[in-house]
Design brief:
Distance between the termini: 8 Å
Radius of gyration: 20 Å
Shape: globular
Strand content: 5-15%
Helix content: 25-40%
Structural class: alpha+beta
Number of strands: 11
Largest sheet: 9 strands, antiparallel
C-alpha cells in the first residue's frame, strides 16, 4: 500500500501548488510538505459526545507504566496492547531516527497516533506552553491554518442536509452582482474547481489596484466583506469551473460568507454551535485571538496570526490534538453528517480534493495547515485490521519540520 505513496504525495504537491506555497503572503512561512486528507468509518456512537470525550481523555491519561520522561523536555506515551506493538515500534523509530536512538531535537510539538478505540502513541517533544515551563500536551492549543477548511466544509454539508442550499446552487444566488456567479457551484468551491484566483497566495493579482487605505485595513484585519467582494467581482477566472482543480483559499472564504448569509450568524457562532459543541470540542475556537497556549518558540517572529476575520473559513481556527481527534472520529464515523453527506465527502479519485481533504491513496486522506508560527498535519487511514487510524502532528515552525511523511510511510507499510 505504501509503494506509490511518495510519488503520489509529490504529484499532489504539483497539483495543489497553492497549498504548498502555504499561506505565504499572509503568514510569511512555508507550508509543510504535502497537502490534505480525511476519512470515514467508526463503530462507536458519538451522539453521546461527553462519553466519547471522557474516553479520549482517559486514553490520553494512560497509566504511568506506559510513560517515558526524558530530560523534562519530552514525554512519550505508548499503548501496551499487544496488537499495536508494531505500530508503536514504527512511531518510536520516527521519533528516534538517529544512531544514538535519542529523541530528535528537530521534532517540536506533538505527534499522535490513534485508532477508533484508543490512543496508540503520543509524543510531546521539545516544546512548551506559553509559560515556558509546561511541556505541551494533548490539550495545548495551536493555530491549525488550512485544516480550518474541513470545518467549513462540514458546516456547508450540514446546511445541505437541512435543505438550506444545494451542492448544485450557483453563486449568483448569494452574490447576484458577480458576473461569473451563474457558472460556479457550491460543489466547485468545495472541490477547488471554481477557477477563482487565490486571495491569499496571489494577493497581487486578486487585489490588483488596492488602495493604501484598503491595504492598511487588510493587514489590520479591518477589510470589509464589501471590499473583498468588490475585488472578487473584478477578477477573471483562471479556468472554466469544473474543468480543472487548483487550490484557492478564496473558495472557502466565500463558503464562510455563504454560511453567514444563510444562518444570520457569524461564521464563528455557527461553527461553535454546530461543529465544536456537537463534537465536544471544548478548547477550539474560530475568529479568536489570545487563546493559543503553545509557545511560539520562534525568536525570529513576534506575535500570533491575527487576520482572523480576513481569513475566516480558510485558516482561522485554533484547536488542540484532543479536539481534532474528536472531530475526525465524528466525521469519519458518520456521526457528524448524514450518510449521504458523509459519502459525498469521500467521492473523489486519488489525487483529488474535496471538503478539505486530499485522497492520496485508496483509503488514505490528508491535509496540512500553516500560519506564520505553527503547522498542523492530519492524516486518516482506513485499515481492515484496526478500523480508522488517525495521525496528527502539531508544531511550532521554528527549528522543527513535518515528520508526517515518515509516520505515514512506516505506519502504512504495516496496515
Amino acid at each position: 500500500m505504501n509503494i506509490k505513496l511518495v510519488m503520489l504525495i509529490a504529484m499532489t504537491m504539483l497539483i495543489f501548488t497553492g497549498c504548498q506555497d502555504g499561506d505565504k503572503d499572509l503568514s510569511g512561512s512555508e507550508s509543510i510538505s504535502v497537502s490534505e486528507d480525511a476519512i470515514s468509518g467508526l463503530n462507536s456512537d458519538l451522539n453521546d459526545n461527553d462519553t466519547d470525550k471522557e474516553a479520549i481523555e482517559d486514553e490520553i491519561n494512560d497509566d504511568e507504566s506506559c510513560v517515558n520522561h526524558i530530560d523534562n523536555c519530552c514525554e512519550i506515551i505508548k499503548s501496551d496492547e499487544e496488537k499495536y506493538v508494531d505500530l508503536v515500534t514504527a512511531m518510536n523509530d520516527v521519533c528516534t531516527m538517529n544512531e544514538t536512538l535519542t529523541y530528535l531535537d528537530d521534532i517540536h510539538g506533538i505527534l499522535m497516533l490513534a485508532s477508533d478505540d484508543e490512543m496508540i502513541y503520543e509524543a510531546y517533544l521539545n516544546s512548551y506552553e506559553t509559560d515556558g515551563i509546561t511541556l505541551v500536551s494533548a490539550n495545548t492549543t495551536y493555530e491549525i491554518g488550512s485544516v480550518t477548511k474541513q470545518f467549513t466544509a462540514a458546516s456547508i454539508l450540514k446546511l445541505v442536509e437541512e435543505g438550506e442550499l444545494s451542492l448544485d446552487d450557483t453563486l449568483d444566488r448569494f452574490f447576484p452582482e458577480y458576473s461569473y456567479g451563474s457558472q460556479i457551484t457550491i460543489d466547485n468551491l468545495l472541490r477547488m474547481q471554481s477557477g477563482i484566483p487565490d486571495y491569499i497566495n496571489d494577493m497581487d493579482r486578486f487585489f490588483y489596484g488596492i488602495t493604501s487605505e484598503e491595504e492598511s485595513d487588510m493587514y489590520n484585519d479591518k477589510l470589509t466583506d464589501e471590499v473583498f467582494l468588490y475585488y472578487l467581482y473584478l477578477n477573471d477566472l483562471e479556468f472554466e469551473p469544473g474543468m480543472e482543480t487548483k487550490y484557492s483559499n478564496t473558495n472557502y472564504h466565500i463558503l464562510a460568507l455563504i454560511i453567514e448569509q444563510l444562518t444570520g450568524k457569524s461564521y464563528a457562532e455557527y461553527i461553535g454551535e454546530n461543529i465544536f459543541s456537537e463534537c465536544g470540542m471544548s478548547n477550539s475556537s474560530s475568529q479568536t485571538i489570545g487563546d493559543v497556549t503553545s509557545s511560539i518558540d520562534n525568536a525570529g517572529q513576534d506575535g500570533y496570526f491575527t487576520l482572523q476575520n480576513f481569513t475566516r473559513g480558510a485558516m482561522d481556527i485554533h484547536s488542540n490534538a484532543k479536539d481534532l481527534l474528536l472531530f475526525e472520529k465524528a466525521l469519519f464515523n458518520g456521526n457528524l453528517l448524514s450518510e449521504e453527506m458523509t459519502e459525498y465527502l469521500f467521492e473523489m479519485e486519488i489525487g483529488d480534493y474535496n471538503c478539505g481533504w486530499i485522497k492520496i491513496e485508496e483509503g488514505i486522506y490528508y491535509h496540512t495547515g500553516s500560519t506564520i508560527n505553527y503547522s498542523c498535519v492530519v492524516c486518516v487511514i482506513k485499515s481492515e485490521e484496526f478500523g480508522n487510524i488517525y495521525m496528527l502532528q502539531l508544531y511550532p515552525n521554528k527549528n522543527s519540520r513535518s515528520y508526517m511523511d515518515a509516520m505515514m510511510d512506516k505506519v502504512i507499510s504495516l496496515l
